[in-house]
Design brief:
By secondary structure, the chain is an alpha/beta fold. It is built from 15 helices and 14 strands. The radius of gyration is 24 Å and the shape is elongated.
C-alpha cells in the first residue's frame, strides 16, 4: 500500500530530480542516517520514477551487499507499490534483471551484489543511465567506483543510501564530506523523518541499541567504536535459570594456545539461559589439551542431558570431526562479528539471553571486551573474547534464528532492529 503521507525529507528525495526542484542540477543524492527512518523506500521509489520518466530502452544498476539482500530489503516492499502505481514489473531472477514498463516506456534494471573486492568485475563493461546503491557503506570502494563509472549516458545520476559507519569510512570521507564538490544532494535522516513510526515504536527501537550502535543506528551519527562492547551489561543481566528447562544446546569457542570456552544453554519458553560453562586457559594451566580431551570436557559439561546440537567455531575443523565421530550433532557457527555483536546485544536486552551465576568467566569477559580504537574500521580487541565468541555464535546461529532460520535472521538484523 502506498504511504498516506511523506515527511519533508522524504518528499525532497521523491522530487529532487524534477525540473521544478531547486536541486534539479545535482548529479547525485546521498541519504544516510538512522535505521527505520524511511530513506530506503523513498529513495528506491524515486529512483524508479525518475528512470521511467526520463529514459526508455536504457539499462540501470540496482546494487546491494548481495542480490538476495537487495530483493529482500528493497524490492520486496517496493515492487508491490510500483504495481499499485501502474508499473508493469517482470523479474528474471536467473538473469538478475528487472523489466519495468510504464506509459509506453520500458527499461531494464540489473541487480548486482557488492560483497567484496572481486565484485567490481561483475559490473564491468555495462553502460548504465543511472545506479542505486542500497546500503553503500557495506560495499567495497572498488565496486562502488566501478558502478559509478558505468553511468556514462547523458543525464545519468547516482543514488546512495546507508546507515552510518565509522568516521574514517571511505564513503563518509569521499562522498558525504565532499558532497558539494561532487555536486551531490545530502539528506540526513532520523526516525522522526518516517511518519509511519509511532513514538512507541521509536522508543522500542532505541532500547535495542546502546553505545556506538545507538549513536549510529538511532541517532544516525558517523562515530568511531570505542569503549566496552556491551557497555550496558551489569548484574541485572545475571540471574539463575528456572527449573524444568525444555531443551539444551552447547556453544563452543575452540582454542589450543588461546582459551577454550563452552557454554551450556537451556531454553524455557522464549528465553535461553547460559546455565553452566567450561573455560580452559592453557597458558594459565601450563598445558595444552588435545581435541579428544576437549571432547571429554564437553561431554562432562553436557552432564547426561540430551543436547539438541553443538554449535562450534567454524575454524575448528579437527575438533568438529572428533565431535561428529562421537555422535554429536555439530553445527558450524555463523561468524560475522559485527552483526553477531548487534544480535547478541539485542537478545540480551530483550531478555531472550540470560547469563547465569555459575558462568563466572563469561561475566568477567563482559566487563573487559572492548573495541580496538587503533584498528582501521570496526574491530574488537583480540583479548577477553573467548566466552564472548561462544555466546555470539549461539546468539546468531540458534537464538536469533528460532522460528525463522538462523541465516535469514542474521541477514535481516541490520534492517529489522
Amino acid at each position: 500500500m502506498i504511504p498516506k503521507c511523506f515527511s519533508d525529507k522524504q518528499a525532497t528525495v521523491l522530487t529532487w530530480w524534477c525540473e521544478s526542484s531547486p536541486w534539479h542540477g545535482r548529479e547525485a543524492i546521498i541519504c544516510d542516517g538512522a535505521v527505520r527512518s524511511g530513506k530506503t523506500l523513498c529513495c528506491g521509489l524515486s529512483f524508479f520514477c525518475w528512470a521511467m520518466r526520463n529514459f526508455s530502452g536504457r539499462s540501470f544498476g540496482l546494487c546491494g551487499k548481495t542480490a538476495g539482500a537487495l530483493r529482500r530489503n528493497l524490492l520486496g516492499e517496493l515492487l508491490p507499490l510500483l504495481q499499485e502505481l501502474g508499473f508493469s514489473c517482470t523479474e528474471r531472477v536467473s538473469r538478475g534483471q528487472l523489466l519495468l514498463s510504464f506509459g509506453g516506456r520500458s527499461n531494464t534494471f540489473y541487480l548486482f551484489g557488492g560483497r567484496d573486492e572481486g565484485s567490481a568485475a561483475l559490473i564491468q563493461g555495462i553502460t548504465l543511465a543511472g545506479v542505486l546503491l542500497d546500503e553503500v557503506a557495506l560495499m567495497p570502494r572498488s565496486f562502488v567506483e566501478q558502478a559509478c563509472a558505468r553511468c556514462s549516458v547523458e543525464g545519468s545520476r547516482l543514488w546512495f543510501n546507508c546507515n552510518p559507519e565509522g568516521p574514517e569510512h571511505w564513503f563518509y570521507k569521499e562522498w558525504v564530506q565532499k558532497r558539494e564538490e561532487r555536486n551531490a544532494l545530502y539528506l540526513h535522516f532520523t526516525m522522526a523523518d518516517n511518519p509511519g513510526l509511532s513514538p512507541t515504536i521509536i522508543r522500542r527501537y532505541a532500547r535495542h541499541y546502546s553505545g556506538t550502535f545507538y549513536r549510529r543506528f538511532v541517532l544516525g551519527e558517523w562515530v568511531a567504536a570505542e569503549g566496552v562492547v556491551y557497555d550496558f551489561f551489569d548484574e541485572s543481566y545475571v540471574r539463575p535459570a528456572p527449573p524444568d528447562l525444555e531443551e539444551w544446546v552447547i556453544s563452543c569457542d575452540y582454542g589450543t594456545v588461546n582459551p577454550a570456552s563452552f557454554g551450556l544453554w537451556g531454553r524455557k519458553g522464549g528465553t535461553w539461559y547460559r546455565v553452566e560453562e567450561y573455560y580452559y586457559d592453557s597458558r594459565r594451566e601450563g598445558r595444552q589439551k588435545t581435541d579428544r580431551e576437549y571432547a571429554d570436557d564437553l561431554e562432562r559439561l553436557a552432564g547426561g542431558r540430551t543436547i539438541r546440537q553443538v554449535v562450534v567455531d567454524p575454524s575448528a575443523a579437527s575438533f568438529i570431526e572428533v565431535l561428529r565421530r562421537r555422535g554429536w550433532r555439530v553445527v558450524r557457527a555463523e561468524n560475522r562479528v559485527l552483526e553477531g555483536i548487534r544480535i547478541t546485544a539485542r537478545l540480551l536486552k530483550e531478555e531472550k539471553l540470560v547469563i547465569c551465576p555459575p558462568c563466572r568467566d563469561a561475566i568477567r569477559e563482559f566487563s573487559l571486551y572492548c573495541w580496538d580504537t587503533k584498528a582501521v574500521g570496526d574491530q574488537v580487541r583480540k583479548e577477553h573474547d573467548h566466552a564472548m565468541d561462544d555466546i555470539r555464535y549461539f546468539a546468531v546461529t540458534v537464538a536469533a534464528g528460532e522460528g525463522r532460520g538462523a541465516l535469514a535472521a542474521a541477514a535481516v538484523e541490520r534492517r529489522a532492529f
